[in-house]
Known about the structure:
Largest sheet: 6 strands, antiparallel
Number of domains: 4
Oligomer: single chain
Number of helices: 2
CATH superfamily of the largest domain: TolB, C-terminal domain
Distance between the termini: 74 Å
Strand order of the largest sheet: 4-5-6-7-11-10
CATH topology of the largest domain: Neuraminidase
CATH class of the largest domain: Mainly Beta
Shape: globular
Strand content: 35-45%
CATH architecture of the largest domain: 6 Propeller
Radius of gyration: 27 Å
Structural class: mainly beta
Amino acid sequence: MSGPFIDNASAAPASTVKSASSGRCLDVVAQSTQPESPVNIFDCNGQANQLWTFTAVGELRVYGNAMCLDVLGQDTTAPATLQIYTCTGGQNQKWLINGNGTITGAQSGLCLDVTGDGTANSTPVALWTCNGQRNQEWSTSAGNGDAQPPTIPGNPRVSDLRCDSVTFSWDAANDNVGVAFYDIYHDGQLMKSVSGGTLSTSLSVVPGATWGMYVNARDSAGNVSQASATVQISPPQCQADNQAPSAPGQLAASVSGTTVSLRWSASSDNIGVRAYDVYRGGTKVGTVNGNGSSTPNTSFIDSGLNTGTDYQYYVLARDAQSNTSGRSNSVNVRTGAACGSPVCGVRQVATDTDIPWGLVTLPDGSVLYTRRDAQDIVQLNPATGVKTTVGTVPDVQSTDGEGGLLGLAIAPTFSTDRWLYIMHTSPRDNRIVRIKLENGKLITGTSQVLLSGILRNKFHDGGRMRFGPDGKLYAATGDAQNGDYAQNKNSLNGKILRLNPDGTAPADNPFGNHVWSYGHRNPQGLAFDSQGRLWQQEFGNGIMDETNLVTKGGNYGWPACEGTSGACGTSGFIAPKRTYSTADGSCSGIAIVRDVLYVACQRGTRMYRAPITGSGLPDAQVYFNGAYGRLRTVEPSPDGGLWLTTSNSGDKDSIPNNSNEKILHVTLG
């Protein structure tokens, strides 16, 4: 029996599936061929009840393709019982063979698990929450012969756009074995996965949002295509609304040095308040946003003001259709004679028409920064604001998303060796290179590729780099929109990497390669504290971003968990030190000054300030909430302050010089 969904020509040869912890094989109990027969582990004997065929649609078939490995009752919660059953094509009979040795249910995301970590003959096999332990690792040649990703899905398009839904369609991708799934994203966030036979699906959307939608193809072996072209959508509001919110009330202010803290009572609206705009002296200086499902906060911190100066504030409320309330009451304040606050001043040093991404301060006090889409590097004199292009980095290619010219780092030996360390997307991969900077110019003839083969995609390319106190180069890589890579310790994706300055892998790395930690989705911020500990900032999918304290060989859980959700509390995974909702986060860069962590956030349009206490981040204050828009990069400055850059326009399209960004200097108290 071959079943209605597959033929033998599009399936891998039959193979045993062997438990890593015991060396015993996945086995149909008592060689039964009857539906609903259970599975266990048993001494490998090469008989038909231990020979499994992995098909192009992701089934594990046994007895010459007659029966499928099946989840009883389509259960998606642990523990879930396994059996063999007549092949139906159902999602409870679809499996992923992952590069880290796990086998996961396509419907549940749970791992094939030897019950109780047993190693004896006849120990049952079930589905359990993935935890990285040896009883969930398997070796098999089934599915391992396919390393070729599908082609790019073509002609993405939308129809029937409504306030809360849209139909998204595309043309089929091709694959050497067969496309098993299509994954639909907006702006790097997974919306839905559908079967390989599906070329159109209905999706939920948010009224008034502007999203860039695209689709990837994925085969049964977990290979993921590059992303399709992006389709922009802007759903209308669900109902006409001409009624403005009520005016915010009871605005009050307190002053600490040169910082003013404002609070007010919430406005009401017939549908809902979406944002508050804060005005100082009649000029808008910040916005406090809600996220569509929760109302915005009713407080704002205005920092870096002049000493001994009078200021007047008022607040307006807005709804989702930009109906604006009347003014709140006004409050008048006078700042103190000196800064008594953590953040004391902000000065705009320069602007740029492209996206400033990586940034370092040279020993002479000047600043170098990469321009992501323009693919060149600029030297900035922070005293005068004068900018000079030092050169274009060769072999850079953008991704119509977030790839391009990314991270920048220099070693403590820069004054003598003149090496710039650069991470960028090429036409083939993401890679780390180094090029010498001599007399204010890139000497491209000195370019050396230190590490290549970091897979790329439209989003999830990582890109931050930082030299540690040990003299090693640390680099953050994204999962290339394939969570399986994050758990595969032999993959360079979804990792923090650690390199010698010449690109070789240090001998004391935990896995004998460049990998330092794993289980990351799209990490970008990297910073070291005074104890030499590495902190890392990571984008979540749709639930929460996270700040991690990175340890050698640590597993941070993706894709089994996100932040503190899912299996993140399970043994084997390291929990984050702080989380942020994605609406208040989407944080890219971090910096540490005097053991205080500063986090630059894009969607959240804010900077978090979180003192490091022991090994935790128990408290975080919000600064610049909406004052400068989306914040991408934050770096220490030589005077004990911060460099801060914005990313407000053109940051998801790879078009050069279509932005209007700021480079700011922040004076800290």
